[in-house]
Specification:
Helix 4 crosses helix 11 (323-331), helix 5 (184-194) packs parallel to helix 7 (232-249) and helix 8 packs across helix 9. This protein has a 5-stranded mixed beta sheet with strand order 5-4-3-6-7, with helices on both faces. Strands 10-9-8-11-12 form a 5-stranded mixed beta sheet, with helices on both faces. It has a two-stranded antiparallel sheet with strand order 1-2. The longest helix has 26 residues, at 255-280. The chain has helices at residues 56-60, 67-89, 108-125, 134-140, 184-194, 201-209, 232-249, 255-280, 296-303, 315-318, 323-331, and strands at residues 3-6, 13-16, 25-30, 35-42, 46-54, 98-104, 129-133, 152-157, 162-169, 172-178, 285-289, 309-311. The protein has 347 residues and is of the alpha/beta class. The radius of gyration is 21 Å and the shape is globular. Helices cover 40% and strands 21% of the residues. The structure holds 5'-O-[(R)-(carboxyoxy)(hydroxy)phosphoryl]adenosine and zinc ion. 5'-O-[(R)-(carboxyoxy)(hydroxy)phosphoryl]adenosine binds at residues 33, 138, 158-160, 185, 188-189, 200-203, 206, 290-292, 294-295, 319-320.
């Protein structure tokens, strides 16, 4: 695990991690969706600054993220989060080994703001630029404040993805399976909307689910390949259930029980498949990653497991943040490290 980068002006070689044992300090920006975040991380694991400017209040009005609005807000907050981060860490641009940013997948308008800011810093301080894959960064959130080393099985659950990965080494991973329709975070957000739960759907839905009876309603489980997922049938089943309950109870239908039953259904599927993958490949470490890894029931199910060593990022490193991007820039050669590299929306 080591790779080389060049500085923009004099092509000086920088090795990450530093060969002489000097600290590697990476400053990173994350702006793939509705969060503008900046962080400074030492040696991939120690967070020196972590700043997040959330746009929840702005998007709440629209019931979801409006890409054009997100990009404009990012422009307003990017300079502020960078300044705040340098203050928190008590560091200057010269102290940074390399500048990184998420370059995809995500909302292109939002990504451009973060990537261009990181490239500008890289040029201003003559330090290398590192482009980072957002999904890989979510997994790397597990390196923060831990001694985690591959191999491990990762359950990546976010607003855009649901995957089980076999991570053999820092730079080597295989996708064992994924969703064939909606991502789990997306399903949470859609079901939350059906139940008139305020944006952001997932976390608010989770709070209601914790108050309900998870055994009250049963939903079938989709028949898909061993490590694949399909949640769109469950989403439709919830829609029909809500329509039926509304006829019976009106708007005072037992929302908490619906939420708890849905949560039980989807989290047990995610849990069982991940455990099966760890058993099949005889890997005793499992890591959770992505925004939905903040879910209370998912965390409970996994942390109650004694058979495997379980890792999950602290809540603030589950949802989008820049510390995970800096960590990913340190541990993985994302191979997107030229100033010419462009942002991308999908894999
Ligand atoms: O990883 P993330 O911050 O952004 C993406 O890369 O997509 O994930 C956001 C997703 C949203 O769909 C949000 O509703 C969901 O994570 N989420 C949750 C919880 N916290 C965030 N879903 C269920 N329970 C939660 N506690
Ligand atoms: Zn994310």
């Amino acid at each position: 695990m080591s790779y080389e980068l060049k500085t923009p002006f004099d092509n000086k070689i920088i090795t990450i991690p530093d060969k002489t044992g000097k600290d590697t300090i990476i400053a990173a920006i994350e702006s793939s969706c509705d969060e503008m975040a900046f962080a400074i991380v030492k040696n991939g694991r120690e967070v020196l600054a972590n700043v997040v400017a959330s746009q929840i209040d702005t998007h709440k009005k629209y019931g979801g993220v409006v890409p054009e609005v997100a990009a404009r807000e990012h422009l307003n907050s990017v300079a502020m989060v960078i300044e705040e981060g340098f203050n928190q860490a008590n560091l200057k641009g010269e102290d940074i080994t390399a500048f990184a940013s998420t370059i995809g997948p995500g909302l292109v308008g939002s990504l451009i703001v973060g990537a261009n800011a990181a490239k500008a810093l890289s040029i201003a301080y003559n330090k290398p630029f590192i482009g980072v894959n957002h999904l890989k960064a979510h997994v790397c959130a597990n390196y923060i404040d831990t001694d985690l080393k591959p191999p491990f099985i990762a359950l990546l659950v976010s607003g855009g993805h649901t995957q089980i990965l076999k991570v053999d080494d820092y730079d080597s991973q295989t996708i064992l399976g994924g969703t064939i329709d909606d991502a789990i975070g997306e399903v949470y957000d859609k079901v939350a909307r059906l139940m008139d739960i305020e944006y952001p759907g997932g976390p608010n839905f989770d709070k209601m689910a914790q108050l309900g009876n998870k055994n009250r309603f049963q939903f079938t489980k989709a028949k898909v390949d061993e490590f694949d997922f399909s949640f769109s049938g469950t989403k439709t089943a919830v829609l029909y259930l809500i329509q039926k309950l509304k006829k019976e109870y009106g708007d005072d239908y037992p929302k908490n029980d619906v939420a708890a039953s849905f949560q039980e259904n989807v989290t047990s599927i995610l849990y069982n498949k991940t455990i099966n993958a760890a058993k099949k490949y005889k890997i005793n470490q499992i890591v959770l990653a992505g925004g939905v890894a903040a879910n209370s029931e998912i965390r409970k199910k996994f942390f109650d497991t004694k058979e495997f060593q379980i890792y999950a990022p602290k809540m603030k490193y589950c949802t989008d943040n820049a510390s995970m991007v800096a960590s990913c820039a340190y541990f993985l050669n994302n191979d997107m490290n030229s100033l010419d590299v462009e942002v991308f929306s999908r894999l």
